[in-house]
Write a structure and sequence with these properties.
The protein is mainly alpha-helical. Among the domains are: about 1-45, no CATH class; about 125-270, Outer Surface Protein A, domain 3 (Alpha-Beta Complex), CATH 3.90.930. It contains 13 helices and five strands. It has helices at about 1-15, 15-25, 25-30, 40-45, 50-70, 70-75, 80-90, 100-115, 125-145, 180-185, 220-225, 235-245, 250-265; strands at about 165, 170-175, 200-205, 215, 265-270. The strands form two sheets. A three-stranded antiparallel sheet has the order 2-3-4. Helix 5 crosses helix 8 (about 100-115) and helix 8 packs antiparallel against helix 9 (about 125-145). It is elongated, with a radius of gyration of 25 Å.
Length: about 280
């Protein structure tokens, strides 16, 4: 138990600047929350302050580098406020034993999205950008964790599923700005040209993919995908779309769209074998 306590104490010291300050002023108070043997306590107290700060700075730099890889567009904005938020995240959410970089990145994305919601330190599109990159990060983790089968059928033989649903690894997300263009510009070191227009993206993850694919779709296609829940039949989907747009005679176009989405491995039959 004591060895675990020693590791926990050191980990906390490496991630908490306030605890390191307290350590310099009152070691007994700083270490009071850990069950250390006298020898372990002496070992920690003997660590030079400069060395402790070096370890802490090294850990923080490595963590920030991982976050920058996960959210390149966000960091490319270059807002000085982000440095403050990274410091705050590091203090409030110290790394946990056994936690993966993916876990940490997802927690950071959620933290930043909430933190900048009502702030004025970032461009208006920044929250969309965080959610855009956070979804990519979540799918990258899925890519490492599971194999998502693609549709290997001959495209000429593919038929519309009776009760279509989105395949595993497919996400649909709506944004208030042209976030995909913004992200691309920032990644390439170009000034983004944000527009106040809605954008709907389909994130597609298939086996053999090294990165999730992103497709920009129209709002009618997004409405159609929302209805493909594996419960509704094609007839029910057609009726729902026609009711949504208050227009009859849309079946041919809807069936064409369902067929193309199935060929693209976005939709599948709800009761497909192995589902």
């Amino acid at each position: 138990m004591s060895a675990t306590e020693l590791q926990a104490c050191l980990a906390r010291l490496y991630t908490s600047s306030s605890l390191r300050k307290l350590m310099r002023l009152d070691p007994d108070a700083a270490l009071s929350g850990y069950f250390l043997t006298p020898a372990e306590r002496d070992t920690i107290v003997a660590i030079e302050g400069a060395k402790l700060e070096w370890f802490a700075a090294s850990l923080k730099a490595k963590r920030r580098a991982r976050l920058e890889r996960a959210f390149p567009g966000l960091f490319a904005i270059g807002s000085p406020a982000l440095d403050t938020y990274v410091e705050r995240f590091h203090e409030v959410f110290p790394l946990r034993p056994g936690e993966t970089s993916g876990d940490d990145a997802e927690r950071f994305g959620a933290f930043v999205e909430e933190t900048i919601a009502d702030g004025e330190q970032f461009p208006a599109y920044a929250r969309d950008l965080v959610r855009f990159e956070l979804t990519l990060q979540e799918l990258r983790r899925s890519l490492r964790a599971v194999s998502v089968a693609a549709n290997r059928d001959d495209p000429a033989t593919v038929t519309i599923p009776k009760r279509p649903r989105r395949r595993p690894g497919v996400r649909v997300a709506r944004f208030a700005s042209n976030v995909s263009e913004i992200d691309d510009a920032l990644r390439n070191g170009q000034p983004p040209e944000p527009r106040d227009e809605r954008e709907t993206l389909v994130y597609l993850l298939r086996d053999a993919d090294s990165e999730p694919r992103i497709m920009r779709v129209s709002e009618p296609t997004a409405v159609l995908l929302d209805l493909c829940d594996g419960v509704r039949s094609v007839d029910e989907i057609v009726a729902a779309v026609e009711a949504h747009y208050d227009q009859n005679g849309l079946r041919p176009g809807i069936e064409d769209a369902l067929l193309e989405l199935t060929r693209s491995s976005i939709l599948e039959e709800a009761d497909a074998p192995g589902a």
